[in-house]
Amino acid sequence: LANRLQNVFGKLRSKGKLTEEDVGEALREVRLALLEADVNFKVVKDFIAKVKEQAIGQEVLKSFTPGMVVIDIVNKELTALMGGTQSKLARSNRPPTVIMMAGLQGAGKTTTSGKLAKMLMKQNHRPLLVACDIYRPAAIKQLEVLGEQLKVPVFSLGDKVNPVEIAKAGLQHAKDNGNDYVIIDTAGRLHIDENLMDELKKVREATSPDEILLVVDAMTGQDAVNVAESFHQQLELSGVVLTKLDGDTRGGAALSVKAVTGCPIKFVASGEKMDALEPFYPDRMASRILGMGDMLSLIEKAQAGIDMDKAKEMERKMRNAEFTFEDFIEQMEQVKKMGPLDQILDMLPGANKIKGMKDMKVDEKQMARVEAIVKSMTTEEKRKPELLNANRRKRIAAGSGNTVQEVNRFIKQFDDMRKMMKQFSGMMGPKGAKGMKK
Ligand code: GDP
Ligand code: MG
């Protein structure tokens, strides 16, 4: 999805003036890309209509950078589509806060319960896990093992007691022991059926949860959205957790869940490890879809051609925005070994933005110029980009045979890239780290 959209927007950006037809054509492609990514048909239709209405306006077409304005509209609407702002986990002012997990079998309820407990522990809370899945063989054991690993208490009454009773007793246990969060791990079925819903409703009645989180598997695409809709009708969910985003998903579920069900996505999980859970930020997801490039593929590609330690160090630096001009040059040397520049830059976060600027076309000549600029910096300047004041820039311009404006432009772009890298990797979190361990 991201790649297709970036292509469309690359074209838009590079145009100085836009006609209604240009916008229409771009939006047709956006529509196709969304449909291909398995975004709900009706959601796509409404989305395109909204964007079109704003984008065709005369002000936009007459503006100085119409392409950018259109992209900005798409970005805002995508963010709105996914709920606008981040939805936080509920917190009861009369503890314990009760979180009930729901979802089909294998969606990741038990795993997510553990991850949530870990997250809460980190915030100095005292969660209690309650084992209410008495059907799936070894389900209780699975939760107990997680609890032991995380040092979170697990409440269970074995598999002979009714889940409703277990939930009630678990809640009481939390009150008696000062646990401020109770996470109820429930059973799932392969399909939605009445027994499952009845049981969940009874558990809900018995515990009055502050939060009912539906766990859905992002890899199931459109089905995940349908499941969310059914569960929401029956249970009035307060939020959705999207799991397995590390897998081969086209991302459509993330885009449709909120629009179809009205329920916000609160967390996304991208791995089996206990720290692979993150709050869901609609704005970051939108940026990622629109122009952040595929840093993981870049890193993978780098691994193929570059030594692992260097790649690992580079990834760490990007994550912490410690990326310096020295690193930049080193990357360029490595990149040259890796193949056609255009292709590599396509994968770098923010590279599209740089490419779109008409005076920063990515050709080898331009790269040589950039290289000359960096090579005219002192070692200290390369390591500390913030040192580059006006005088230093003048010197660098003279030394590299460029104008000061050109030097300024490059430094600005470098800064933007660093910022984007930081934003991007912050979002990727454990996923990025996982990619490194292969
Ligand atoms: P439940 O039946 O809903 O409780 O699902 P489980 O928590 O037992 O998870 C089912 C399987 O999915 C397990 O093998 C988990 O390790 C795996 N799983 C859960 N979340 C993720 C995720 O975000 N990414 C990946 N790759 N696997 C996950
Ligand atoms: Mg389970």
Automatic annotation (TrEMBL):
Keywords: Cytoplasm, GTP-binding, Hydrolase, Nucleotide-binding, Ribonucleoprotein, RNA-binding, Signal recognition particle. It catalyses: GTP + H2O = GDP + phosphate + H(+). Residues 96-291 form the SRP54-type proteins GTP-binding domain. Residues 1-82 form the Signal recognition particle SRP54 helical bundle domain. The keyword Nucleotide-binding applies. InterPro entries: AAA+_ATPase, P-loop_NTPase, Signal_recog_part_SRP54_M_sf, Signal_recog_particl_SRP54_hlx, Signal_recog_particle_SRP54_M, SRP, SRP54, SRP54_GTPase_dom. Belongs to the GTP-binding SRP family. SRP54 subfamily. Part of the signal recognition particle protein translocation system, which is composed of SRP and FtsY. This is Signal recognition particle protein. The lineage of its organism: Bacteria, Bacillati, Bacillota, Bacilli, Bacillales.
